[in-house]
Write a structure and sequence with these properties.
This protein is mainly β and 451 residues long. Helices cover 5% and strands 36% of the residues. The protein has a 4-stranded antiparallel beta sheet with strand order 7-8-12-11, with no helix packed on it. Strands 14-15-19-18 form a 4-stranded antiparallel beta sheet, with no helix packed on it. A 4-stranded antiparallel beta sheet has the order 17-16-20-21, with no helix packed on it.
Length: 451
């Protein structure tokens, strides 16, 4: 059905069948006027479930043609289930039937019914398990729990795919899933999508070859080449071998992500045995409140999440953001990725992960002189946060000559300083005291305790 503004003498409509390529034009007669004062005309004898292109112009008394309107692309509906009829009734039920043929591969139907005086339809889903077949090969269903002596209106259609959902999104794609069961024999599906502000649906036919199945047995499809940070509306229907379309699902709305921070990279020359430095682009339009940095050991599945406020992020001489991740384990392979957060805490697309290994620990010269076993123990202690009890310790008293180093040692050992002379060279006192690591008490050579 088409509408035009009132005031034209004659109207011509051009019709183009998009699939087969033919076109024709018709002089419109029997044009009606609706309550809004617009012309209304119903174009008859078209093919079901077929996409047509239509445009309109007016003719004056001299048969001069006006400018054509912009083309419209409506699609006729699929054929409804045929020969719906009410074959039996009781005080609380109505039994209906409709045609079934050999090509009927619909998984389910949707039955709408209402009191004749009501405007609201009651919707009931009929699975094929609850539908019987009579001796004439027709579908039969009994609708129960109705009011006695009440006039009902009924209509039926085939059912949409179940549980359509959007399970993943990126800056340029949306991944959808919907239920699949053992009786699913559809040849293909039809996905319609559009910007939320657009009236025109973009139609994409999905063959079963391009549809994957996830671990839960659901159909999964990834819709690519979308605009970033854009709200999309999606709906889906199934197609059988005769290209008959089912009911559409309820539309789903989801927004693609913001573009990920650009040129994310590792600054290898600034990384150490306990830190990794990263950088990414910053431009004049950068209004992000914060960033989110995820990192993990390469062989661990769980990400560690760190929020980076702009106060903790530096800017290098090239105008790039720079951040140094601290307190990492030495000689360990890490995987890192980053995204931005806006003022509503909405996360952008993540960058591609980068992998970097922290450096080996640079051992002090004194540690390098230890036996290999002690060096390994030292490295393990530095790598971790554990502590170790040591039962041998060397204390060095260093200072200028004559400042009282020998006297200090005597006092620490609870000895008299009478007769102390200046040390000539180095004085080594071995095993002169012990400390109980449980109670902290010192034991001097002669058994004296110092608390």
């Amino acid at each position: 059905m088409i509408r035009t503004s009132a005031g034209r003498i004659n109207l011509i409509i051009d019709i183009k069948h998009l699939k087969n390529g033919f076109s024709r034009n018709c002089l419109l007669k029997n044009i009606k006027t609706n309550e809004d004062g617009c012309h209304v005309y119903t174009l008859q004898e078209l093919l079901p479930e077929t996409l047509y292109e239509l445009r309109l112009c007016s003719l004056d008394y001299q048969q001069d043609c006006s400018q054509y309107t912009e083309s419209k692309l409506p699609k006729t509906l699929q054929i409804a289930p045929k020969n719906l009829d009410i074959i039996e009734r009781t005080e609380s039920s109505l039994t209906i039937k409709w045609d079934k043929d050999d090509s009927d591969k619909r998984r389910a139907y949707k039955l709408n019914y209402r009191h004749k005086t009501s405007e609201k339809w009651i919707v009931k889903e009929l699975s094929t398990e609850n539908i019987k077949t009579n001796e004439d090969g027709c579908h039969v269903y009994k609708l129960n729990e109705l009011l006695p002596e009440t006039l009902y209106e009924l209509r039926i259609c085939s059912l949409a795919p179940k549980n359509l959902d959007i399970i993943e999104r990126t800056e340029s794609s949306l991944t959808i899933k919907w239920d699949k069961d053992d009786s699913d024999k559809h040849r293909a599906y039809k996905l319609d999508y559009r910007h939320k502000t657009s009236e025109k649906w973009i139609v994409e036919e999905l063959s079963t070859e391009n549809i994957k199945t996830n671990e839960d047995g659901c159909h999964v499809y990834k819709l690519n080449e979308l605009l970033p940070e854009t709200l999309y509306e999606l709906r889906i229907c199934s197609l059988d071998n005769q290209q008959d379309c089912s009911q559409y699902t309820e539309p789903k709305l989801r927004k693609t992500l913001q573009i990920a921070p650009k040129n994310f990279d590792i600054l290898e020359h600034e990384s150490t045995d306990s830190s990794i430095a990263i950088k990414w682009d910053k431009d004049d339009s950068d209004k992000h409140r914060a960033y989110k940095l995820d990192y993990r050991h390469k062989n661990i599945r769980k990400w560690i999440v760190k929020e980076l406020s702009t106060e903790n992020i530096k800017t290098n001489k090239d105008g790039c953001h720079v951040y140094t991740l601290q307190e990492l384990l030495p000689e360990t392979l890490y995987e890192l990725r980053i995204c931005s957060l806006d003022n509503q805490q909405i996360c952008s697309q993540y960058t591609e992960p980068k992998v970097q290994q922290t450096l080996q620990i640079a051992l002090p010269k004194a540690i390098n002189q230890l036996p290999e076993e002690d060096k390994i123990r030292y490295i393990n202690i530095v790598k971790g946060k554990a502590t170790e009890k040591r039962y041998f310790v060397r204390i060095m008293l260093v200072g200028k000559g004559g400042v009282g180093k020998s006297c200090l040692l005597k006092r620490l050992l609870n000895e008299t300083i009478d007769g102390v002379t200046s040390t000539d060279g180095v004085d080594i006192v071995v095993r002169r005291c012990k400390i109980n690591i449980d109670d902290g008490k010192w034991t001097i050579d002669k058994g004296m305790y110092i608390c």
